[in-house]
């Protein structure tokens, strides 16, 4: 489960730049810290990394050279713990644990120590989705303890709680939103006693309350509404209703506005502060029809609003009117909220990669930092000279003793260019191939398998078993890093620092023999660090000539057929499957029956939906039709057909660049899905028309068209680099 939380609070006697008292610091993800690190890696600017006891999804908080984090202990969260770590040493100063009031079996779908602690000059406070609420002194002495599940009933639902403490100098605020009786609770920090309890309707949400100033209204954006609550009485002051998708991001409060984040387009908006009663029709300043904030909360910094959507596209909006200023494709999605500090905005991807851009209306990428980890980055803290990153099991301090001026990258460029933006050509693959798998991970382009033999004749002699890679930052030459089974018609995807190889077919015949082709249910993970393949639970059905795509942590497979040798007819699939890559035990789940039987398809994703493009059916006819699967609604629907004759849908390639879904066709057309999702637009004509190729993003504005074949010239080994024409977007 992800860190769905936001903590905040304006605290007395907190030295600017030296404390990070709650999640998102003082509730807005802005830090006054000085000399924050700009550049780091495994070998540079890392002071220490430590293993934490148990597992937790909370963010770190900091006070007077001490860091505090929470964890859950045991497979069923039998205990919960608060841990104190020395900022300079990285050593555990003390750790306190207690038996959980409401234990639950840990799995990939339920929160694990998700609420972040809060700290002031007197105490540190911890709240857990087990219902336990507790206060300690800075030295680890327990001051008070209570169980909200004992007091007010158990927490209900399948995914746990993620809402974190909001803290002001006089009050702790706890929002409990679940399938049972829900409420907002105000608690005395010194005694733990309830000041007031405001009942709320039962509804699931993981956002957190915002306490912008001591005594100011508490702001809650949660599952359909945004509202202000009187901090002294718990009474509702005003309400904005009819919202959608605001179950995860928390609101961000400025002097004039309240910015609401949502996973749904059209519901990311700004509300004028003040008013009374239902202000839905009177106080909404602006709505963005383009930007979304899926997991992380919006940042308002230097006159602009920054959001990150589900697919890892960062948006910069004008805070005054909500107009999109720029958008930038990150390497992946972010569960930690973006940070504003030192005139920069930091985007912390869950993979460990961090992109740093200059704050302001011009996209200026200052640095892209690789710090891969086996888990996810759940939260961050920022104090002078230091960033602290928390994954489920580790804590890392970055920036100790580093003079950032000496480490500014020579390649740092201006006005929207990435580090490799001057590169217009890439070296050819070692051989010309079709029907292969390809993906990009941590700055490397990977290619696996494929067909290099006689056209239209498949044999073991013409199939590749090699995994090649190319460094996209310094693309001098290809390197073979591993081998595996000979395969073509497979899918290759990247997720969380690993590669995943799915299906494909193997030729059992020699060159001079009749074709004997067998589709496989093969599923394997490649560890890019150890360069080893690891077999995983196989597909429920053997398949090839399909495609796969990762949306968040889930790998979706659709289309294709199962070839069963020279004596049996192939079985055309009307099934699709998904596996959650975030779970410890991978299990394939079958999706609703597909409304098609097609192979030679391509898959892409946009705004959380999966698109299946074109293909060929059992009757031998090609099609330009598009099918759409909505994971939220768990159903298929018909999308717009791509333009042109039926052959345009044969052997296409599909991917997302920025917030654009693009398709490359057999005639050399590059197509883009229109903003309203009802048609495809021709972006440009590519230099080489290709089919059974791959298309992947090189950066936020350019594509790589990789290998494949052409009806006239045959197979390609070349890679075409082309810009997406933003003028037409």
Residue stretches low in confidence (pLDDT < 50, at least 5 long) are 1-14, 402-423
Q: Helical percent range?
A: under 10%
Largest sheet: 5 strands, mixed
CATH superfamily of the largest domain, by name, is YVTN repeat-like/Quinoprotein amine dehydrogenase
Give me the CATH architecture of the largest domain, please.
7 Propeller
Strand adjacency order, main sheet:
14-15-16-17-21
Strand-pairing-aware structural class: mainly beta
Distance between the termini: 35 Å
Shape: elongated
The CATH C-level name of the largest domain is Mainly Beta
Helix count equals 1
**Kindly state the mean pLDDT as a whole number?**
89
The radius of gyration computed from the alpha-carbon positions, rounded to a whole number of angstroms, is 26 Å
Strand content: 35-45%
Number of strands: 62
Number of domains: 2
Using the coordinates shown, work out and report the CATH topology of the largest domain: Methylamine Dehydrogenase, Chain H
List keywords for this structure.
729 residues; Methylamine Dehydrogenase, Chain H; Neuraminidase; five-stranded mixed beta sheet; four-stranded antiparallel beta sheet; 1 helix; 1% helix
């Amino acid at each position: 489960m992800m860190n769905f939380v936001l903590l905040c609070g304006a605290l007395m006697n907190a030295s600017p730049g030296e404390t990070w008292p709650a999640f998102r610091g003082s509730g807005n993800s802005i830090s006054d810290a000085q000399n924050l690190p700009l550049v780091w890696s495994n070998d540079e600017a890392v002071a220490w990394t430590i293993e934490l006891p148990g597992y937790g999804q909370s963010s770190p908080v900091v006070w007077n050279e001490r860091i505090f984090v929470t964890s859950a202990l045991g497979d069923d969260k039998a205990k919960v713990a608060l841990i104190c770590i020395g900022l300079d040493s990285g050593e555990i100063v003390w750790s306190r644990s207690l038996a959980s009031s409401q234990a639950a079996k840990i799995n990939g779908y339920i929160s694990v120590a998700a609420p972040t602690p809060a700290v002031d000059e007197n105490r540190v406070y911890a709240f857990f989705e087990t219902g336990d609420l507790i206060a300690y002194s800075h030295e680890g002495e327990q001051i008070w303890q209570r169980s909200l599940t004992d007091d007010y009933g158990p927490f209900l639902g399948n995914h746990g709680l993620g809402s974190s403490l909001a803290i002001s100098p006089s009050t702790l605020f706890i929002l409990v939103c679940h399938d049972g009786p829900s409420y907002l609770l105000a608690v005395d920090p010194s005694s733990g006693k309830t000041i007031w309890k405001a009942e709320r309707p039962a509804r699931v949400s993981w956002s957190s309350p915002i306490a912008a100033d001591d005594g100011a209204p508490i702001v809650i954006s949660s599952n359909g509404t945004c509202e202000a609550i009187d901090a002294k009485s718990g009474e509702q002051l005003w309400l904005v209703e009819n919202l959608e998708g605001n179950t995860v991001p928390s609101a961000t409060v400025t002097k004039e506005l309240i910015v609401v984040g949502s996973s749904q387009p059209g519901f990311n908006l700004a509300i004028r502060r003040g008013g009374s009663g239902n202000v839905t029709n009177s106080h909404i300043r602006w709505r963005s029809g383009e930007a979304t904030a899926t997991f992380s909360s919006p940042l308002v910094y230097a006159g602009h609003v920054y959001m990150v959507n589900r697919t890892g596209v960062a948006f910069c909006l004008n805070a005054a009117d909500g107009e999109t200023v720029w958008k930038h494709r990150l390497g992946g999605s972010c569960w930690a909220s973006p940070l504003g500090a030192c005139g920069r905005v930091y985007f912390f991807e869950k993979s460990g990669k961090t992109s740093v851009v200059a704050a302001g209306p011009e996209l200026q990428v200052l640095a892209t930092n690789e710090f891969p980890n086996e888990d996810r980055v759940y939260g961050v803290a920022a104090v002078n000279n230091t960033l602290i990153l928390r994954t489920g099991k580790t804590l890392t301090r970055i920036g100790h003793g580093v003079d950032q001026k000496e480490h500014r990258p020579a390649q740092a460029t201006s006005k929207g260019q990435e580090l490799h933006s001057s590169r217009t050509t890439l070296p050819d693959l070692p051989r010309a191939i079709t029907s292969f798998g390809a993906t990009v991970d941590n700055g490397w382009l990977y290619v696996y398998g494929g067909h290099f033999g006689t056209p239209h004749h498949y044999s073991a002699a013409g199939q590749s078993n090699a995994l090649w890679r190319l460094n996209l930052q310094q693309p001098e030459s290809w390197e073979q890093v591993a081998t595996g089974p000979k395969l073509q018609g497979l899918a290759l995807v990247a997720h969380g620092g690993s590669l995943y190889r799915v299906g494909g077919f193997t030729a059992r015949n020699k060159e001079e023999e009749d074709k004997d082709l067998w589709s496989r249910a093969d599923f394997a993970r490649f560890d890019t660090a150890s360069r080893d393949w690891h077999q995983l639970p196989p597909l429920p059905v053997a398949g090839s000539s399909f495609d796969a795509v990762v949306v968040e942590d889930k790998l979706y497979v659709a289309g294709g057929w199962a070839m069963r040798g020279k004596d049996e007819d192939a079985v055309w699939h009307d099934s699709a499957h998904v596996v959650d890559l975030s779970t410890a035990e991978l299990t394939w789940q079958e999706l609703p029956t597909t409304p098609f039987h097609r192979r030679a398809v391509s898959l892409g994703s946009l705004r959380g939906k999966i698109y299946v493009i074109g293909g060929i059916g059992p009757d031998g006819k090609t099609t330009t039709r598009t099918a759409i699967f909505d994971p939220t609604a768990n159903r298929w629907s018909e999308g717009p057909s791509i333009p042109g004759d039926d052959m345009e849908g044969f052997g296409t390639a599909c991917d997302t660049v920025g917030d654009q879904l693009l398709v490359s066709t057999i005639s050399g057309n590059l197509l883009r899905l229109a903003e309203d999702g009802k048609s495809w637009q021709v972006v440009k004509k590519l230099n080489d028309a290709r089919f059974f190729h791959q298309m992947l993003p090189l950066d936020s504005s350019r594509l790589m068209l990789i290998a494949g074949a052409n009806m006239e010239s045959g197979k390609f080994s070349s890679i075409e680099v082309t810009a997406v024409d933003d003028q037409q977007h």
